Amino acid sequence: MRWSSSYIPTLKEAPAEAEVISHKLLLRAGMIRKLTSGIYTWLPFGLRALNKAANIIRQEMNNAGSQEILMPSVQPADLWQESGRWQKYGKELLRFKDRHERDYCLGPTHEEVITDLLRGEVRSYRQLPLNLYQIQTKFRDEIRPRFGLMRGREFLMKDAYSFDCNDEGADKSYKNMFEAYNKIFTNMALNFRPVEADTGAIGGNFSHEFMVLAETGEDTIAACTNWPNCTFAANVERCAILPPKTINSDSCPDMEEVATPNSHTVEEVAEFLHVSTKNILKTLLFMADGKPVAALLRGDRELNLIKLKNLLDVDELEFATPEQVQQLTNAPVGFAGPHSLIGVDTVIADYELQTANDWIAGANKGDTHVLHLSLQRDCKITRYADIRNAEAGDVCPHCGKPLELKKGIEVGHIFKLGTKYSEAMHAVYLDENGKENTIIMGCYGIGVSRVVAACIEQNNDENGIMFPPPLAPYEIIIINLDPKNQAVNAKCEELYVHMKEKNIDVLYDDREERPGIKFKDADLVGIPLQLIVGGKSLEKGVIETKIRKIGEKSSISAENYKADFE
Ligand code: ATP
Ligand code: MG
Ligand code: MG
Ligand code: MG
């Protein structure tokens, strides 16, 4: 592609709303543009990276025996009612009606649709096992879309689903996908870890997340320091999860009227913490800019702040700003009304405050949660993670070596679902003896668009992106330093034609721009190898080269370069 005839609108500055580096660079490198909150258009340069990611995924999914399909993004409500998720999924599910007043949703995931497909088709054990995938646009009405592609509302996902006759087969399918995922992220040249994960809203028996390691990650991972000898790593969401219980929604008056199997009342929380309900302060306590700050969500805020200071025995304790809370918790601005409790409500009880005090004493700038116990809108406790303890001595359950905490971006997630959907939706097959059995399912997602953002989070410097070759929109950029010079033009053309013949993805910067601008743009867009063609070096018989990632400059012969690109 010639830059002069392509559409790569680079920007000197990133728009102010871009908070994280990938978002800034995606905008600056002319890869994406925002349409509205959490919804983006992919421009040609960005789309090439997205397609590269999708094709790496396709290849390994096909190698693993999965077959590609494409399901609709509009889904009828009755399937979701059948699975029970129409009630449970909450506001992330975008719902609407057609002209006949029938209910629909935009697919955030496709378990219902695929189970419906298979139950109409699969009759016999001979048709199983089966593994189908699609690469398709998903919609989730995220409470706070942010960080550009990282947490969009509309995003591209690869989702695969496996169907087996028995548990043994399902475990094999899971393992097969686990291995395929390792290959996929290795082929993308990403620094990643598979981690043990909580099964969340999708449900099921066991699951792993694939985390790209990056400081800006929203997830915290406890990983064994004995890596790679020991591969144990877990999402801290999983560190200590209370046993499943059912709540009585009367005891939780300002919460939504939903009871889910993992729910607990405030009373139950108190019991778990060995304190009376009176002693539970609804507080979120964390570090911001190296100082302890508190978000008091209920009651007399001033009074509670004083109490908290005394309890913690600290001189300085400030209210967290809504922005700080937002940043940490994904919560909406302000704390108006019960729904603002979603995901932010943390209970710190008396005896834990002592622990919190120790933590504050030893905390480092940038540390986040202390004792983190969140109650969701339905009073469901989603996580209880004592990160301080994980840091101080929790040891690896596999090898006994210390654990360390890392930040990660969830790029993939695999679940063994068991019969959660097949049972609810009656997806069955007949075995060898003609007996009816329930199909065992698994589901396997990759955030394709998030992969592109995660890749940039992990590969950048102050000048821009440093794409690893497998995800780079182009592998080579030819920089013509002097478009008025005949010899330079001729050499560039020759190189360009040669690269194209060799099927190398090449971008030729033939624009009438100053060298300074071309160098800056080349570094910004992050193509792995730069071939710099200028009058002076050509006279010496060489073409300068620069490897973007390591900055290493070298040169190749202007005449005998072909062997370098075999
Ligand atoms: P998260 O914890 O980040 O909200 P999730 O656990 O809700 O993600 P899954 O249901 O596991 O997501 O979906 C599979 C994959 O889709 C995720 O591993 C992630 O890579 C991607 N994904 C999920 N939500 C988003 C989003 N809002 N924007 C971009 N990618 C997403
Ligand atoms: Mg989510
Ligand atoms: Mg998750
Ligand atoms: Mg997930």
Automatic annotation (TrEMBL):
Q: Which PROSITE patterns match?
A: AA_TRNA_LIGASE_II
Q: Do the record's keywords include Nucleotide-binding?
A: yes
The protein's GO terms of the molecular function aspect are: proline-tRNA ligase activity
Q: Coiled coil: which residue ranges? A: none
Q: Which domain of life is it from?
A: Bacteria
E.C. number(s) listed in UniProt: 6.1.1.15
Which subcellular locations apply to this protein? Cytoplasm
* Known catalytic reactions: tRNA(Pro) + L-proline + ATP = L-prolyl-tRNA(Pro) + AMP + diphosphate
Where's the Aminoacyl-transfer RNA synthetases class-II family profile domain? 57-468
**Keywords in alphabetical order:** Aminoacyl-tRNA synthetase, ATP-binding, Cytoplasm, Ligase, Nucleotide-binding, Protein biosynthesis
The subunit structure is: Homodimer.
Q: Which family does it belong to?
A: Belongs to the class-II aminoacyl-tRNA synthetase family. ProS type 1 subfamily.
> What's the protein name?
Proline--tRNA ligase
Q: What is the organism of origin for this protein?
A: Taurinivorans muris
Q: Which gene encodes it?
A: proS
